[in-house]
Amino acid sequence: xxxxxxxxxxLILGGGGAALRAAIAAAEYSSDLPVxxxxxxxxxxxxxxxxxxxxxxxxxxxxPSTEPGGPDAWRFHADDIYRIGGYVSDYDLAEVxxxxxxxxxxYLDRLGVPWVRRSDGTPDQFVTxxxxxxxxxxxxxxxxxxxxxxxxxxxxxxxxxxLIEGMAATDLLLDASGSVxxxxxxxxxxxxxxxxxxxAVVLATGGAGQAFATNVFPPDCTGDGYAMAxxxxxxxxxxxxxxxxxxxxxxxxxxxxDAMRSLPRLVNDRGEEFLLRCLPPGRAASEIYAIxxxxxxxxxxxxxxxxxxxxxxxxxxxxxxxxxxxDYSHNPQGLTAESLPVxxxxxxxxxxxxxxxxxxxxxxxxxxxxxxxxxxVHWLADRGLDLDAGEMVEIAPAIQxxxxxxxxxxxxxxxxxxxxxxxxxxxxxxGANRPGGNALMDCQVFGRIAGENAAxxxxxxxxxSLDMNWLAAACRAxxxxxxxxCPAEEVRREAQQLMSESAGxxxxxxxxxxxxxxxxxxxxxxxxxxxxxxxYAVETRNLIQVGExxxxxxxxxxxxxxxxxxxxxxDSPAPIPPSEAWRRYIVLRRGPAGMALExxxxxxxxRPAEV
Length: 611
Description:
Layout: E1 3-13, H1 17-29, E2 35-38, H2 48-51, E3 59-60, H3 74-84, H4 91-110, E4 136-137, H5 143-155, E5 161-164, E6 167-174, E7 180-187, E8 193-203, H6 224-232, E9 236-237, E10 242-248, H7 258-261, E11 265-268, H8 286-295, H9 308-319, E12 324-327, H10 342-351, H11 365-382, E13 393-402, E14 405-407, E15 419-421, E16 426-427, H12 438-460, H13 468-480, E17 486-487, H14 488-502, E18 507-508, H15 509-523, E19 527-528, H16 534-556, E20 566-567, E21 585-591, E22 594-600
Parallel strand pairs: 1-2, 1-8, 2-5, 8-15, 14-16, 17-19, 18-20
Antiparallel strand pairs: 3-4, 6-7, 7-8, 9-14, 9-21, 10-13, 11-12, 12-13, 21-22
């Protein structure tokens, strides 16, 4: 294999919000330090930050204007992160996030991110996902895209920051002591390999949504960072916790917020309103619609929220071979304004342009959606879904965010010297759940921390010699993918379907155990690019490896917590409840005999976290 070698000071892997923030921080730390950011797509148009969209995308932060006010108000934010996370994250990392979120916001503000502001000039903020105070700032549906664009502009201004596009990382490189000393890449759509040696490496490659058949991730999010870190010997944590939410199959839009608050019908392809089956005998239909309304504010699946019954109901319809739709043309059976809770009617009075007692507003979910969020109707129409013409939105539970990842500590350092991680690829800062808006904020807080600490290390670390045996083995692994074998495209499709069936909303011990066996058989096949770029085969290898991490951790955790819903059987009426004994996280790493898992106690609060 053709191999080229280069060197730099700090090497950043990724092209999203965390990678850009890390690269900028490293370059700003010292103008004499060469920094290289390498992404496998086009900067500013690939990855999650550049492409994500929702009805109102949030950046979670405690500002001077945020309730309850005072210099220590950020502590309430830290407690919320830990509490909402189900007590399976490191509390000191929650403190880092909460304490530094304000600085991260201010930096983006200086870069020109167009935050929505109140009449007094302070940023507008709203409440998300169980938070006690309104902390979610936003620009609108494209908050993440605005952040990415601002960071790209800044990155292009730094003369010591080299931006390299179209190169896919395949493996981390080690030195003789086992420290990370660079990474191996494939040039876009080629078999040309490039080894870039560096004094420090920041992993910011995002999540692994493509490990599942149904997801809202871009095609390039295949878990490369998780797999590369695992093969290099790093610890990973909380890999069983993956946020899943109902999305439009045609557009990928998360059907959250007002899409649910407008109270559409949920029907299968037989026209049946199956949600009514979720109600115990003798209960009023209006109860399930109050839960449907609440789904707007708690979109991801979570055991702690009663709204998870909706996700389970949808998942079981799909498992039975039926398709599921949101129908906005007329009201669900048994829904009347008078039957809804006072709190729901009050919300409409405050946020809508018409009263629940008026017709056709009271009779049509579409009229309600128009009154509370007309841009969503237009957004769907622009992408071929005409709600005005009576078209329905086909939905399914989709993978949305990985809560766990490569285990980090306060300085964004991993368990391997020389390697830092930030953003969705990192783990330990979030637990089973997270407040909405914490993901964007996390990328900026730990992106800066990772970049600065990587720069400090690179300036003091003596040049190390690569472990040439390790490099040779990584190159041989690439060459094997270029020969005969099972086509990567077929293998990927089979693995994705297996993961969606066994590690989606409804998880059982038997289903997970069988899936581990089946995935092991898939992994043991000789994989071949078979006409696709060699990097595609590498990605396929990676997502299979990540799939094993998810399945093994999910099987070990025999309780429900956050998005991890464990059932005794596929048709059990309710998930297995959480256990106090499981206020621990699962750490996995590469062992002598394969994947090794260990249960550990997370870093605890110095005082009891407020609940």
